[in-house]
Design brief:
alpha/beta, 8 strands, eight-stranded mixed beta sheet, single chain, Rossmann fold
Length: about 200
Amino acid sequence: MTRIEVPTPHGPARAELHFAEEGRAALLLGHGAGGGTEAPDLVAVTRAATSAGVHVALVEQPYRVAGRKAPAPARQLDTAWLTVAEDLGQRWFAELPLIFGGRSSGARVACRTAEEGTASAVLCLAFPLHPPGRPEKSRQAELDGVDLPVLVVQGERDSFGQSTPTHSREVVLVAGDHSLKADSDAVSRAVSEWLGRILRLLD
C-alpha cells in the first residue's frame, strides 16, 4: 500500500494505493460526505477488487485532508476528483482502463465525472437517490446521465432510496442500511462478480 498527495485547484487530495498482483484495470473510490476512506464497504471492495486483479486508489477529497467536516460544493468535489484521476492515470495506471466509484457522495461524484474523466465503468455504493424522507429531491438524473456499465450496491433498508436497474445499470440489494455494514461479504461478492464481467468486456 502506498499513500500519495495530489495537488488540486482546491488544495491537496490524498490517495491510498492498493496494487493487485496483475492489474488489468484501476478502480478509483471516493468516500461519503461525512466519512473517510476507512468505511467498511470501501475496505471490503478494496479487498475484492485487488483479488480480482484490479488496482484500487482510495481518494480523500481536499476538504477532508484539510480537516474540515463539511463537504465542499459539488463543483469543487468534481474538479478535485478529475485532477486526481488524471494524475493517477498518468503516473500510476498508465494505459489501464479506469473505473470510477465511491460510496454515497463519492458515488455521485463518480457519476457526474465519468464521461469527462473517460471512465470505463462506474461503481456506486449506497448511491443517495434522495435525502431521507425527501423523494422529491431526486438525484436520479446523475445516475441516468452515465452511459456506461454501472453497478449500484444498495442496502435493503437504505433511507436514501433505492435505484432501479436499466439495460446498462445493475442494482444489487444487500441486507442493511445506508452504511452497508451489515453484510460486507455480500457487498464483496457483488462487486467481484461485476468486476469479472467488466474485465471481460475490457479485454
